[in-house]
Amino acid sequence: MRTDGVPVTPRMIQVMALEMAIDAGIEERAFIASWSWLQGFKRRFKPTLRARTRIGQDTQGDGDKVLATFAARVAQVVRDNNIDVVYNADQTAVNFEYLSTKTLNAKGEHTIWVKCSGKTKDRATAMVMADSTGKKYP
User: Fold this and answer.
1) Is there a single domain that holds both residue 90 and residue 31?
2) Same domain membership, residue 118 and residue 76
3) CB neighbours of 53 closer than 8 A, spacing ≥ 6?
4) Same domain flag for 38 and 64
5) pLDDT, tens digit, for every residue of 61-98?
6) Domain hosting residue 19, numbered range
7) Among candidates 54, 132, 53, 122, which has minimal Cα distance to 89?
8) Using DSSP, how many helices (H) and how many strands (E) does the chain show?
9) Residue 125's closest CA among 88, 86, 87, 89?
């Protein structure tokens, strides 16, 4: 699973061990993948729980295929139901104050102070809407 980029938790290791035991024909009462079993597993194989440092995405080709399939499905639904206008709405966060994560400062300083109004995490939600004719709604 890790080679596929899927995060693996200790609980997932226990569940997979139980599934493998069932596949191997071991009775449920004989193996329960307990907490102490998991500790022994971690001592033997020395896996570590790490924070993610990178997030991968599908390739552009994969996204293009999914987009083409979705667009064809929407077009088919529009034709089948004689729909004239398709509406689309979405919500997005609008911050009251935006502060850049970087600033120019003298070289070598370790603490960089930036003044702000204290509203850096406060935000409102804006909903935008348009239709397939190109009309935008307030």
Assistant:
1) no
2) yes
3) none
4) no
5) 778 888 999 999 999 999 999 999 999 999 999 888 77
6) 2-45
7) 132
8) 3, 3
9) 89
